Amino acid sequence: MAKEAKTKSAPLDREAWLAGVDPKRREEAGRLLAIFGEVTGWEPRLWGPSMAGFGRYAYRYASGHSGESLATGFSPRTAELSIYIMPGYADFGALLARLGPHRTGKSCLYIRRLAAVDETVLRELIRAGLEDLARYWPVHPV
């Protein structure tokens, strides 16, 4: 029997969600909702308890593992903002060099303060991540 996905998509009530964000991150979370919405043209959805996701994609690996995930988005964690750029950063070195202070994980970009990074470059990264993802799997707005 297939395992059920832990992280599922649900409608995101902006005001209620923002009210639950750490007060130190609330303004940044609101700004990121606007940035991702402007770049993607899509409405956010809640993925799990804390991730604001924009778009979705279904995947199936060669191993047979399959699922559905947000196409891009973020989570306003207490210590850092986690920005999700799927499927990763293989060809984004030049953009990341222009972004400002950050660190990366496999598909996550970690930023301590949104004001410390170049918002124009962040927008370029979001677009580039979506374009890269679409080379692997179809990306859907909802």
Based on the model shown, name its key terms.
31% helix; 8 strands; globular; alpha+beta; Aspartate Aminotransferase, domain 1; 142 residues
Layout of SSEs?
Layout: E1 9-11, H1 14-19, H2 26-40, E2 44-47, E3 51-60, E4 66-76, E5 81-85, H3 93-99, E6 103-104, E7 108-111, H4 119-134, E8 139-140
Antiparallel strand pairs: 1-2, 2-3, 3-4, 3-8, 4-5, 5-7, 6-7
Helix pairs in contact: 2-4, 3-4
Describe what you observe in this structure.
The protein is of the alpha+beta class. The chain has a single domain, classed as Alpha-Beta Complex (Aspartate Aminotransferase, domain 1). The chain has 4 helices and 8 strands, in the order βααββββαββαβ. The chain has helices at 14-19, 26-40, 93-99, 119-134; strands at 9-11, 44-47, 51-60, 66-76, 81-85, 103-104, 108-111, 139-140. Strands 1, 2, 3, 4, 5, 6, 7 and 8 form an 8-stranded antiparallel sheet that branches. Strand 3 (51-60) and strand 4 (66-76) form a beta hairpin. Helix 2 (26-40) packs across helix 4 and helix 3 (93-99) packs antiparallel against helix 4 (119-134). The longest helix is centred in the last third of the chain and has 16 residues, at 119-134. The model has no long low-confidence stretch (mean pLDDT 91).
